[in-house]
Amino acid sequence: MTDDDTRASAPVPRGRRQRFLHLGRAVGEMAVSAAADGIAQLARGERPQLSQLMLTPDNARRLADRLSKMRGAAMKVGQLMSMDGKDVLPPEFAQLLAGLRDSAHVMPLPQLATVLEEEWGSGWESRFRRFSFNPIAAASIGQVHRAETADGRTLAIKIQYPGVRDSIDSDIANIALLTRLPGLVPPGWDVAPLLERVRQQLYEETDYVTEAASLTAYRAQLGDDPLLHVPALYADLSTPRILATDFAAGESIDQLMSGAHSQALRDRVAEALTRLALRELFEFRLMQTDPNFANYLYDSASDRISLLDFGATQAIAEPVVDILREMARALRAEDRPRIRDAAAALGFIGAEDSDAQANGVVDIVLLSGEPLRTHGRYDFGNSDLFGRVYANGRDQYREQGFPGAPPADIMLLQRKFAGVFLLASRLRARIDIGRLFDPYL
């Protein structure tokens, strides 16, 4: 984290009507742009398609700007669209929405001061030698400030935006209404599961009391790791809307994607985070399920990775761990009947699904297990695995439809591992995945 950047500010809109107007303006701006582009195409003798007119880079910028100002559920939907919609959204549109992951507008100083006084009381300034009012990070739920306490602690203070928790249900309802408009969502993409997942996740992430407990439990499980670090919690300054922890220095892990960093470093970082995900599943049975790259900071001075944001931490039941262990064993053996049984036990295949649908799920799972079956290091940088998995899933959906979605907790575990492998791909890392799995199989 650094505290030298200046971000655009805007008050967090409150109330369903005010927030709906922001969404309405975003859609209106997109529609006007689409109409103008459509007229231009007609004048050239072309036949415009509505979805192509709506889902343009310019409209992605307009939508991202509006969602960044709204924050909360509206912004979270945009973030997840950029990750879950890669196979149906135009690449430029998804890439621009991806900027929402850590680029929210920040609260103006008067609104920030009101929140701080409500949480810490009048005269709170006396508890600090220094408090930077310029945030070092801003996302969908809150913004983070650097501070030094009167007793010399350097802290990161995460402050929840006012009204975010109260607006979750209304934001989701507003977005559900708008997604029915023609051209706003690509044909064949059912956004209802995504919206429900956003709703559940936001209720978890806006509960800072639970997040504080999750952070403390996770830190205890991790112990004294030479490469990984979880900042300590400071309960004396934490409230239901403020979370105070040690300040973590470093840069977002995705900054290691540049050519300035060695292959050895990228391999080591990707391997450490893959091993951590396996420890979360098989040892901790407690997983931080949000794979946002901004949740990992690499500090070159200490050569350590700080793990941030435990709002989406999930306990994993022992039977689920056992089924996932069996799935990994079956994947390694390429045993289709065992893979099908494990997939059914996890909810990826239902009793009403056809054999063709079930076999399609097995095909996708087998394909996804390619790194596990590779002898020696798997070269994520030269692999097109993600493209093949997306293409396989898209073709299956078009031909016979997908089976019903598994429970939300299983989907979150799947998303975490997909996110870790995506990071390895972005880092162009080479990892011996089979060796990392060996102790658990």
From TrEMBL:
Coiled-coil stretches noted in the UniProt entry, renumbered to this chain: none
Entry keyword Nucleotide-binding: yes
InterPro entries given in the database record: ABC1_dom, ADCK3_dom, Atypical_kinase_ADCK, Kinase-like_dom_sf
UniProtKB keywords: ATP-binding, Kinase, Nucleotide-binding, Transferase
GO molecular function: ATP binding; kinase activity
Domain ABC1 atypical kinase-like: 100-340
Matches recorded under Pfam families: ABC1 (PF03109)
One GO BP: ubiquinone biosynthetic process
Top-rank taxon: Bacteria
PANTHER family for the chain: COENZYME Q8 (PTHR43851:SF3), PTHR43851
Family classification: Belongs to the protein kinase superfamily. ADCK protein kinase family.
Name recorded for this polypeptide: AarF/ABC1/UbiB kinase family protein
Organism expressing this protein natively: Rhodocyclus tenuis
